[in-house]
Amino acid sequence: MSETIRFELEGMSCASCVARAERALSAVPGVKRAAVNLGIETADVVFAAPATPEHLAAALAKAGYPARQRQVVLAVEGMTCAACTGRVERVLRAQPGVAGATANLATRAATVTLWEPVDALGLAAAVARAGFQAAPMAEAGACDPGAEEAALWRETAIAGALTLPVFVVEMGGHLVPGFHHWLHGLVATQSLWVMQFLLVTLVLLWPGARFFRKGVPALMRGAPDMNSLVALGAGAAWAYSVLVTFAPGLIPEASRAVYFEAAAVIATLILFGRSLEARARGRAGVAIARLVALQPRTALRLSPAPEEVPIAALMIGDRVQLRPGERIAVDGVVVEGQSNVDESMLTGEPVPVAKAVGDSLTGGTVNGTGGLVMEVRAVGAATVLARIIAMVAEAQGGKLPVQALVDRITLWFVPVVMALAGLAFAVWLAFGPGLAEAMVAGVSVVIIACPCAMGLATPVSILVGTGRAAEMGLLFRKGEALQRLETVVQVAFDKTGTLTLGKPVVQAVHVVSGQTADAALALAAAVERGSEHPLAAAVLDEAARRGLTLPEAAGFQAIPGKGAEAVVGGETVRVGSARLFGPLDPVLAHLCSEAQAQGQGVLLVGRAGQAEAAIVAADPVKPAAAETVQRLEKMGLKPVMITGDARATADAIAARIRIKSVHSEIMAAQKAEVVRSFGSGTAFVGDGLNDAPALAMADVGLAMGTGTDVAIEAGDVVLMRGDPTGVVQAIGLSRAVMRNIRQNLFWAFGYNAVLIPVAAGVLVPFGGPQLSPMLGAGAMALSSVFVLGNALRLRGWRG
Prior knowledge:
This protein is α+β, with helices and mostly antiparallel strands. It has 30 helices and 29 strands.
């Protein structure tokens, strides 16, 4: 049977491209026709087996015309276990044009990757036909976890109130000796059974109906899930008890016992477990809710009179008044006033940052005690806060490689459990005391099995871990970076802007006799006002910091490779290297050689061809750089520095931060190759435009949030503070999350591996107990709660 697919292509520029792309597609076995359109950059392909969309896309990529992919996110309600997520994924992957799909039990969402434009409503309809409620995320509206939790607690309370009398009637004798004799002396046994029938039927038809509404259709479709197991177990206990109560002749006399209390307690305990699960899920997802809450709903726009408007009405170029203590609505730049701004939501750094005219402001941060006027530079999805929320959501919705094993197991888990339950029933019926015991064994196996814990083990840890990371100023752009970062064995740092501040700062001003440091600095700054050299900016910044008044300079002239000169106060003043001057004063010469040996830059200042002062500038090492290197080594990692600096400069900086492995004189274009040469297990930390290839080449790229947009986009993890200690925190958190996931998986698999055989009664021949369905229901409910509770411990991770 033939299929048709349309790919949107990249890199198409001429008729030759069309021919090459068509040849590449036609060469794939199974392709019947391939037509490429240069005008709209598409390829329409008719194919049959053995060709697949993946084969076609690989052929296009190899030819140099990769197919574009796009993503659609669906909100999916009704997923309760790993079997549900597996079914949603299979349904979506079966749709035409879908390249891949991942469903996330913790976030209740499905991310669909498409080869071609596909109607999101059509995808949602396919999921709905599988028994779930689905809608495109943009149209689904905000899901209120509190409302879901409240509904579950309400149903649990109703089920508990109806179950309590049944439980007391059946189990009261175990708690109070003689209770059963007293009760049966007052009320006939048949009447008690009828009363239990009425109450338990209400439990199953009212609060417990959710299990049957979802579980029975799934069972009929041949795709049973957690709800099917509960419906089957509770329904079997109820149906058997109904026969004993109203048609006892159909049941052997020795097996005439009712299990109404088991059916009711099963439903009640599992509702209770789901209520706890909903509460834990709400706490796990609190990170995104906090980020969303950071954005105010209105802003005071100056147009020209102050006017309170919704932030959706703001446009680039608008001016916004920021009052003291007010939360900043969108991204912009200060045009009036000065203040301190609390950026802790962005960086995790509690110290407010001084802001003045020309400084940037980020939406969601909080203005301090000063008034500011801001010009809007970004709105909507383009703001930093919106991008952070999108990054966190994408990471939380991701699926780690470790999840692949879970997916393979859960695909068959529920059918296997049902087969084991049938086997336990048959064995007990054939070799056990009777029908009642066989029914108990079968129901116990069905009830105690818990795919919920397996489905939650990985995503809930990712949800909590990435949320905690965001609170600390660490943004995992890709969820799989969590797993890869744990396996890193060495961390390569770009020097400039990563281990150092990224711009030169004046360290000292040395003068010969008869001159003051401030006077020499003022002369140099007067000349350097016309220069674009990086050291010129350092001189001007230092003069401004000291509050110096600069004399007027005229006739500025750059002297290539040497420096610059200008006329100041009627004299020609030169600023630059030693080649601009005659023999240096011995003291200055010694200071210059000493500074250069330490990797510092030196600007000489003088008149009449004679140097009078030396200004020493350097790109300062970040305060936490040495601590970061030390902590990485304690974690068993190898820190490496990559820099374009000369060997002497690189070694001087490496000595200061105690980094042992240094690669110096590396050109920007060579960084990626150096990273490749390190092999697997390498993380690279950078911030500049020329770091993007190395960030992409590394197993994990960590981009400084203070760097360029290109570097940030190339990184897997963004360190919003620009502090190298964020690298230590990111690796530490990655290890904590993966350890947490392994604990959850060990519990989820170990629980089922141990308790399913116990429920089946394998210990009974050796004197062990036969597990009650009620105990099975309690164990099953608590297994999911354990996984969630364990994951929530990550919220308190400090590093």
